[in-house]
Amino acid sequence: MKRMSMALVPAVVVLVAWLLGAGAGAPAGGSAPTSKAAAAEVSQNPSLLIAPGTGPRAADLTVYGVRLGDPVDKLEGNPAFARQPARERSQDLLYTGRDAWFFATEGKIYRIKVRGEIVRRMPAYNAARLQVAMGKADEVVETRGEEGRPAETRVSFFARRVEYMVRGDRNDSVVTEVDLYAP
Q1: Cβ neighbour number for residue 72 with a 10 Å cutoff
Q2: 61 compared with 21, residue with greater pLDDT
């Protein structure tokens, strides 16, 4: 019996090495994501925008391969994004795309506004459910909708550097925009 268990030791060592190495979790015909950035791509997994508890912070997320603090060179020349001046701050640049807006100053991305199809693919959350999932918000600002327009609620989580815009009434509301911003 002792002789047989000693013969299994090399096989177990090889198996453990394989599991810890490239073989663990790698999809067939490819390799597993090699970085945190590859695993935190919002356009592929919108639910990352509503990660409970100690989920990723805004700086950990990428949108179309771009994260906060990246140089604008990542967007320059990309036909999916149009460059224009930002209305709020004349010294800034705004790169607009179908589902994301990237705000830049001094050659770096400082704010990413996610909207459109990406946000529509997120789980349905209203302002109260956001706080249940992510903890108490640092700021909640409600704005009454004008005639014919739904009310808006801005829910901010300062430590995570993320802000959600929720439109609709208490019974029927949905997140319509998510702002990721740098410190």
Answers
A1: 18
A2: 61
